[in-house]
């Protein structure tokens, strides 16, 4: 579960200073966050009021400027472009399958807001307005292999061993 969206831009430097302090010398940290590729901006007033009070999806530039002075190497960045759109669409499918029961627990207003959130945010990810990024951080630039092959090899090994449930981990 992501939490970086709730750290607040004023706290980014302290956040990465803490990672720097706590990370083992040969350790690797992974930051997973919703973000956007456009210049820094403000949060959506509607999302801030009804869905994610105090939440903010940063531009990569905002994050990198806080990482660099904290003596951490960005050893990899992966931008998950439409992955979260698919997640939101699946959440909406499951929500719709249970909508009547949810409306009984909450109310129709909540259901309409939740539908708006799921559908509009899915479109933001589909159009490129939003993304999920994963940033790998380390003290040493050689803390991880040069390519991602080690991840794929581990998945293949687990799949061949019949440990399909853990193959994607």
Task: Tell me about this structure.
This protein has 169 residues and is of the alpha+beta class. The protein has a single domain (4-138), classed as 3-Layer(aba) Sandwich (Rossmann fold), CATH 3.40.50.150. 47% of the residues lie in helices and 14% in strands. The protein contains 7 helices and 3 strands, in the order αβααβαααβα. The chain has helices at 12-22, 45-50, 60-67, 83-97, 99-105, 108-127, 149-160, and strands spanning 28-35, 73-80, 131-138. A 3-stranded antiparallel beta sheet has the order 1-3-2, with helices on one face. Helix 1 (12-22) crosses helix 3 and helix 4 (83-97) runs antiparallel to helix 6 (108-127). It is globular and about 55 Å long. The mean pLDDT is 91.
What is the CATH class name?
Answer: Alpha Beta
The largest β sheet comes out as: 3 strands, antiparallel
Radius of gyration from CA coordinates: 19 Å
The percentage helix is: 40-55%
Q: Give the SSE order as H and E letters.
A: HEHHEHHHEH
User: CATH homologous superfamily, by name?
Assistant: Vaccinia Virus protein VP39
What fraction of the residues are assigned to beta strands by DSSP? Answer: 5-15%
Structural class by SSE content: alpha+beta
Question: Looking at CATH, which topology would you report?
Answer: Rossmann fold
- The largest beta-sheet arranges its strands as 1-3-2
Low-confidence stretches: none
The N- and C-terminal alpha carbons lie at a distance of 15 Å
Total number of domains:
1
**Broad shape:** globular
- The counted number of beta strands is 3
């Amino acid at each position: 579960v992501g939490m970086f969206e709730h750290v607040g831009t004023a706290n980014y430097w302290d956040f990465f200073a803490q990672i720097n302090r706590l990370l083992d010398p040969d350790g690797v940290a992974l930051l997973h966050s919703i973000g956007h590729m456009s210049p820094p901006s403000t949060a959506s007033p509607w999302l801030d009021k009804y869905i994610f009070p105090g939440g903010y999806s940063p531009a990569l530039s905002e994050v990198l400027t806080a990482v660099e002075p904290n003596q951490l190497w960005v050893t990899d960045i992966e931008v998950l472009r439409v992955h979260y759109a698919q997640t939101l669409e699946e959440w909406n499918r499951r929500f719709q399958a249970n909508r009547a029961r949810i409306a009984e627990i909450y109310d129709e207003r909540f259901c309409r807001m939740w539908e708006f959130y799921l559908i509009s945010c899915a479109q933001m990810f589909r159009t490129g307005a939003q993304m999920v990024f994963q940033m790998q951080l380390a003290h040493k630039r050689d803390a991880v292999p040069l390519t991602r092959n080690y991840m794929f090899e581990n998945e293949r090994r687990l799949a061949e061993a019949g440990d399909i449930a853990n193959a994607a981990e």
